[in-house]
Design goal:
Elements lengths: L1 E5 L2 E5 L2 E4 L2 E4 L13 E5 L8 E6 L4 E7 L2 E6 L4 E6 L4 E5 L4 E5 L6 E6 L8 E2 L2 H8 L6
Antiparallel strand pairs: 1-2, 2-10, 3-4, 5-12, 6-11, 6-13, 7-10, 7-12, 8-9, 8-11
The protein binds thymidine-5'-diphosphate.
Amino acid sequence: MRRLIFENCHILEQPVVGDDRGKLVAVEGQRSVPFDIARVYYIFGTEPGAERGVHAHRDLHQWATCVSGSCVLTVDNGRERHEVTLDSPEKGLHIRPMIWRKMRNFSEGAVLLVLASAAYDQADYIRNYGTFLSLTGGGAAK
Ligand code: TYD
């Protein structure tokens, strides 16, 4: 199931394969997520009160899901800002390029899994919110 947050940002729910042994979710590039998966990373051991992300990407697509625990992701396209709670391994967020994101409120033991469309590249990052707004042509998000 695909649910629009706003243009460039969708919740993608992945089908769960379950039987009497437990559950499994498989995520395939170009099938369950609309990009080739070039990189996988996961964030864990997050300190209470910590904020992560706080940047946008020029070209990178990402899909993020909390495989354990929960966290809150704020996504901002330069005009609108939304909060998405990732609290189920069945629910992932597809973040297209040019979305400012921040992750916070990590529960104890939370593991945030991120699938990315390209290798790590510092040059793809936009870390200054003013620069992001000038590139998106937006005013500050409400
Ligand atoms: P950082 O960009 O601060 O993570 P986040 O935006 O998720 O809070 O990255 C933390 C460190 O990890 C930084 O030294 C860069 C490194 N890193 C990699 O080496 N590869 C990666 O794929 C990522 C996402 C980060």
